[in-house]
Amino acid sequence: MGFAETFKALSAPERREILVLLKNGRMSAGEIGSHFEMTGATISYHLSTLKKAGLVLEEREKNYIFYELNASVLEEVMLWISDLRQTNDQAGESKE
Question: How do 56-61 and 27-28 pair as beta strands?
Answer without folding.
Answer: unpaired
